[in-house]
Amino acid sequence: MSATTAMPLHLDDTEVAPEENRRHRRRRGGAGDRPGWFVYTALSFVLLASLLPYYWSLLIGSGDSSTIRDPNMSWIPGGNFFANAAAVINDEAVNFWTALWNSIWSSTVIALSVVFFSTLAGWAFAKLRFKGGSILLIFVIATMAVPTQLGVVPLYILFADLGWTGQIGAIIVPALVTAFGVFWMTQYLRQTVPDELIEAARVDGANSFRTFMTVGLPAARPAAAMLGLFTFVTAWNNFFWPFIVLDPQNPTLPVALQLLQSNYFVDYSIVLAGVLLATIPLLILFVFTGKQLVSGIMAGAVKG
């Protein structure tokens, strides 16, 4: 036997590594990164708990005035939902279509404004160096600790002097930018956009605002989408300030639905049918923007 055949054979490291990696993954958790039965069980429980209030509203809203007091109430929806919904829409005191348009218009304007101004301010705090920037950001964040109710009286006096009470602009202007939006976009842009990209834009002759429009806004798209979605939902559900500053002839949906309880006898089947009508636009919004929401959350998780 020759010397070459007597020498022991040795596997190269690149051949051993895959097998070692597979054994290492088996030791760490068996099926890799796939979630187990406990995760699916917990998520199913959370899903059912989240859907239960909507289903309960559907049960009451599809019944009659005696359904909510019936101890033997069926868990199968009744056949009165469309009649109750028509009663809400045709109620002259509710002004349903005016309230629906006011909610869509105000929530859309507020969401777009908060996204733009919060991204602009977040870009300044994250990527522009100016004296007192850190102190100013701390001040902006500190305003989140101030209860909204403390500013209601002076804010109402201000809009009364301007003659804006009863107008939809009175709920749009105070919400054009939020401290949380500024903080959220500051943190995201600080971790996402490299300084070298900004320097490259400046070398190409772009000024600060053009750099923001061409570099900052595209990079902030996932976080901006999530901020806009949650801002829209918050503005849509806002009741306290619109209830104070608007009148019954020009309400938003939450204020209009409150008028269904102004009578001596409250028919909760009609009230909850109205609540479901007000929820349908939000469900449609989440269906069409679900991917943007998930991408924004995942982008924040990866960067954070």
From TrEMBL:
InterPro entries: MetI-like, MetI-like_sf
Keywords: Cell membrane, Membrane, Transmembrane, Transmembrane helix, Transport
Domain ABC transmembrane type-1: residue ranges: 100-289
CDD domains, per database record: TM_PBP2 (cd06261)
Protein location: Cell membrane
Family: Belongs to the binding-protein-dependent transport system permease family.
Protein name per its UniProtKB record: Carbohydrate ABC transporter permease
